[in-house]
């Protein structure tokens, strides 16, 4: 008789993680491969795709990657057709690819605003639309959207990103509403503040090695007083991609170290001596 842990396995499934050349996407892809899935990924840059394929191989996973900009419907269609020919139709889609531009709203150009909305919200629409018909034919599927603290909260300089992530929460609920009858579950992962290239600028130390003021702020807002690590999100991703979550739909599950439950403490009262010796984050800072 199958045990409970078998319901977390992904054997025989084809999983597509968008934007998995590094960061959280790579963590999700590695986790899916470890759970038995055939994993494919895309990113917008050939060099970073090739580098990532090597990293997957070094980790023991044979992961297929190709360049595909999630905002380009023709590229997405061609990527999906290529994957279907090579591996079969896609059972699991993680709409992970995302960018952020930290600019005061009144100083943000329309082009900058549109780029963030296109990657973070329209991209998930394009990719979900490309895989849902085959999921319906196959009897079901899983769609997981990369939501955020900014699906719930605002903050200075991230207007486009927050608007996109708030919209992505509602797109998650709408895909659930429209396609749940076909055994498609669409849920969101809502990470807190996680150490990746996207957040590297927020942790960058001063010339004198002093802690970044935003780093201090986030630690004062997090009960554990630390940033999350990409590995800590793997379990939730596998859960939402697996049969274990077949009756979970339209939910955004926050994995944030408690930020969304805590009013926070005065950053000035934080004892930073505890983590001054932490190795400085060496994530690449990718300029999109
Ligand atoms: P990241 O380090 O910046 O990685 C973003 C990934 O998306 C990269 O693989 C990047 O690859 C790819 N990408 C960017 N634009 C793309 C496009 N147009 N088409 C295809 N791929 C594209 O970000 P992250 O921190 O891992 O975050 C991943 C997702 O989780 C994002 O949606 C982010 O908003 C969300 N999130 C992150 C955090 C956090 O604290 N880190 C918290 C909550 C939510 P290329 O550069 O090679 O294209
Ligand atoms: C920022 C950060 C956040 C995180 C994440 C939090 O500038 O505030 O980049 O937006 O990336 O989305 O959940």
Structure description:
The protein has 288 residues and is of the alpha/beta class. It has a single domain (8-275), classed as Rossmann fold. The protein is 39% helix and 13% strand. The chain has helices at 23-34, 46-58, 73-87, 110-138, 159-179, 200-203, 213-221, 234-241, and strands spanning 14-18, 38-43, 64-67, 92-95, 141-146, 184-191, 252-255. The chain has a seven-stranded parallel sheet, sandwiched between helices. Helix 3 packs parallel to helix 4. It is globular. Bound molecules: NADP nicotinamide-adenine-dinucleotide phosphate and D-gluconic acid. NADP nicotinamide-adenine-dinucleotide phosphate (NAP) binds next to helix 1 and strand 2.
Question: Secondary-structure map with pairings?
Answer:
Blueprint: E1 14-18, H1 23-34, E2 38-43, H2 46-58, E3 64-67, H3 73-87, E4 92-95, H4 110-138, E5 141-146, H5 159-179, E6 184-191, H6 200-203, H7 213-221, H8 234-241, E7 252-255
NADP nicotinamide-adenine-dinucleotide phosphate (NAP) binds next to helix 1 and strand 2.
């Amino acid at each position: 008789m199958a045990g409970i842990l078998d319901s977390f396995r992904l054997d025989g499934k084809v999983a597509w993680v968008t934007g998995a050349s590094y960061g959280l996407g790579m963590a999700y892809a590695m986790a899916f491969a470890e759970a038995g899935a055939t994993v494919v990924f895309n990113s917008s840059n050939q060099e970073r795709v090739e580098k990532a394929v090597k990293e997957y191989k070094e980790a023991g996973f044979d992961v297929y990657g190709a360049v595909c900009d999630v905002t380009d419907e023709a590229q997405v269609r061609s990527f999906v057709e290529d994957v279907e020919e090579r591996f079969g139709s896609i059972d699991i889609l993680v709409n992970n690819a995302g960018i952020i531009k930290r600019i005061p709203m009144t100083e943000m150009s329309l082009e900058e605003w549109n780029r963030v909305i296109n990657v973070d919200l329209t991209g998930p629409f394009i990719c979900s639309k490309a895989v849902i018909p085959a999921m319906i034919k196959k009897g079901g599927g899983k769609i997981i959207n990369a939501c955020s603290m900014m699906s719930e909260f605002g903050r200075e300089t991230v207007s486009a990103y927050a608007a996109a992530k708030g919209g992505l929460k509602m797109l998650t609920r709408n895909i659930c509403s429209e396609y749940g009858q076909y055994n498609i579950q669409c849920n969101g992962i809502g990470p807190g503040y996680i150490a990746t290239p996207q957040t590297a600028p927020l942790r960058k130390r001063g010339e004198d090695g002093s802690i970044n003021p935003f780093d201090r702020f986030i630690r004062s807002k997090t009960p554990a007083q630390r940033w999350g690590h990409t590995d800590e999100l793997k379990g939730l991703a596998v859960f939402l991609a697996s049969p274990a979550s077949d009756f979970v739909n339209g939910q955004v599950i926050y994995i944030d170290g408690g930020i969304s439950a805590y009013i926070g403490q005065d950053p000035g009262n934080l004892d930073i001596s505890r983590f001054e010796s932490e190795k400085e984050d060496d994530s690449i800072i990718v300029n999109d």
